[in-house]
Amino acid sequence: MRAREGDPLRSIPRRIVDAHRAPSGAVRVDHVAITDMGRLAAVLEAIRDRPLVPELVVAYVPATPRSVVDVDALVARGVVVARPGAGTAATVHLERFASPGRVLVTDDPRLAAVGASGMLVVHVEAVAALAEVLAEGRVGLPEIATLRVSLEGKLRPFVGATDVAYALVDRRSSVLGLGETSGRPVVVEVGGPSLRVLSVHERAQIAAAAKLVGALAVVFPVDERVEDFLRDERRSKAHRVLPEEAEAPHDATQVLDLGTVGACLGTPSGATPVGKLAGEKVAQVLLGGDGMHYRDVLVVAALVRGKRVPRGLDLVFVPPSRQVLDVAASSGALADLLGAGARIVEPDPAILRGEVFVPSPTKGDGLTLSAFLGHETVERAYTASSETLAMAIARGVVHDPKAFRRLPRLKLPRSLPTDDVLIVRP
Fold this sequence. Notes:
With about 425 residues, the protein is an alpha/beta fold. About 30% of the residues lie in helices and about 20% in strands. The chain has 15 helices and 19 strands. It has helices at about 10-20, 35-45, 70-75, 90-95, 125-135, 160-170, 170-180, 200-205, 210-215, 225-230, 295-305, 320-330, 335-340, 350, 385-395, and strands spanning about 25-30, 30-35, 55-60, 80, 105, 120-125, 140, 145-150, 185-190, 215-220, 250-255, 265, 270-275, 280-290, 315-320, 345, 365-370, 380-385, 425. The strands form five sheets. A six-stranded mixed sheet has the order 6-5-2-3-4-19, with helices on both faces. It has a five-stranded parallel sheet with strand order 16-15-14-17-18, covered by helices on one side. α6 packs parallel to α8 and α11 packs across α13. The two termini are about 30 Å apart. About 50% of the residues are buried.
């Protein structure tokens, strides 16, 4: 999707939409990801025997309840099924299916994270609209407005991508304002000279905040980082060139200096600096979900190695994917977490939505800190970066992660496991 000589400069979201816009005005859909099995059943009932038009339809089956899902029937209809235990939908789709320059329709706003790969993610929940997507391969999408955020500067030690995501949430008023003045849904394009320091998984943590930011989607350019990511996942054929055009016109532009971002605790209303809640007791720390990947897990494990969770703190690890679990096990990180007092629970949407491990409303019982968006919609629950979570595990209270003094040296795997044993394909 590289611009041809003589073509006008366009933003990445507009290049994707223009390439998929049909004469009718609808937008062609490449991927569909559904996490609500009741909704999927209703959609398939609505279209009856009509073939599925999108090139890829994935059903992410929750861990519970299992009895209502007929895997064989879904596969016979042409649906790829990610069985319970495969991982969280956003992480698995990013690892195994993400394809730059394409359009993904999903019923789960958490899959906005896939925008890190250069996909445009559109959230649709209505059964009738999803039925049209599956049967016709298109979705209604009006003209969009684009806001470009240029990343500059350098992140300070012990500041992570989650902190950057909440720095964008703090700027939500500008996104909402653009949407009101333009009368169009806003897509945020993140680029700039400092983009190269962020891995695809770090970009996913930022893109996942699209709903909190007030945007239809957050999209990143396809650069060397994305190309390397797809190669490591043994999916180089999915790579498409979709570079950033810094001079392309946008409806609004902003600059975010990464050097001004600090460690924070996030809620839907924005970021609270760690220092403002320093000393607050922590009752639960939830690692993994779709807010961490293998490097984050290795960082936390290294920082808490040899430590034990304080009395009264519950440490829970929700493996983001089988790939992350395999890397954690083979590297010794899983043993470090278990040695610190962690317990492992199967990934399930109910955990990600904050319906499980709900914090106590009593102030003295402590806070819940989570690696993934969702729990922060509950009172006394916050989202935090891996380094901030590690500090809470080590001390049992909120504290600035700079107290660790130095970041651990990590030995990253030379190759990643790409076992799809729990993914059933037609």
